[in-house]
Amino acid sequence: MTPYYSFCFPLQIIRNTLFELQTTFTSCFTREGHVKNTNLARMTDDPNTRKRARPSNRRGRAQEQGQNSSSEDAHSDQRPSLRVPCFGGEPSTSSSSPPPGQISSSPPHQTKAGGPQPTYLTKPAIPIPGMGNQGIRQHVETSTKTGVFHMSKAKLHEFPPELAKITNALRNIDLSENKIAIIPQNISAFVNLKHLNLSFNQIEVVPDQIGQLAKLETLSLANNRIKAVPSTIAQLQKLRDANLGSNALTSFPTVFSSLKFLTVLDLSRNRIPAVPDGVGDLQVVELILNQNQVRSISKDLAKCTNLKTLRLQENTLELSGIPTEILSDSQVSLLSVEGNLFDVKQLSDLDGYDNYMERYTTTKKKLT
């Protein structure tokens, strides 16, 4: 009687042969089915369709061949990934031969007989490009047409030097929420710049050259590390809005007093201890000094003819630190002093409080 293990070798050959037949059959079936679909128009009895399927001239046939080729490529791209099942169960990591009387469970590509290795049809991953020099160049090209350069949250560590090529074209630069530490001295070359936003960066020093931006209207340097403001700011005669909140200023920048068109000055969240004398020439409509260390206010602030809103929330003011002139003689119609060293209701005990309430009520009626 023939032992059972004598059939192992013929079974191995049969299994490899079946695998080759299945792979060949699958490939031929897919390609032939595609060819039949491509040439379906040639098999129809409609003469018009047959005419379209077989162009009469040589140029039409060349176009047809190109279309068939592109269609075949597209079909091959859409073809699902083919994973041919292995005969004999799960792949085995052992390279040793099976004992007598037992059929190996290894797939054909792991057998010693050298069976065909399966190929899996998969598409390679497409890399997603990140922001780099190429991205900056694309923004620069767009900015030459629009006059606006906007690259916030781009993880930039420096002011883009590529902007030096389009200094005359830019009217708006927004580089907020980056990691820029230095404003270059050639910032003065942007002679047509109207809006500059460098907030949420790591800037410590504002260069004197910023005063040469004669057309600048809005300046945002909030959330940086600025400790002082250069005197050349006084040259920005068209400046309307200045935001220096959340910095490290230790004194009130009186340089803004000479700007005739300045409407809003935001100095909140700094370390300013007082509003000094000499601020009577400020032309601002709103002055924001919230979250500082203000302990005293000069009565010159009551001379600001355009000042309507004065915000002094969360400082170290005592009731005696508020000049009565601000209540009685100024144009302030909204005085916000919550979060200081006194109760807001105590304001009614100061001289001039009734005059302030008249202005407050009149302004409130206009808004409603």
TrEMBL record:
Keywords from the named record: Leucine-rich repeat, Repeat
Top-rank lineage group of the source organism: Eukaryota
The answer to whether the entry has keyword Repeat is yes
Where does the record place the region Disordered? Answer: 39-133
Q: Which residues form a coiled coil?
A: none
Q: Where is the composition biased (Basic residues)?
A: 50-60
Q: Name one GO cellular component term.
A: cytoplasm
Which Pfam families does UniProt cross-reference here?
A: LRR_14
- This chain's protein is named Leucine-rich repeat-containing protein 57
Query: Lineage in the entry?
Result: Eukaryota, Metazoa, Ecdysozoa, Arthropoda, Hexapoda
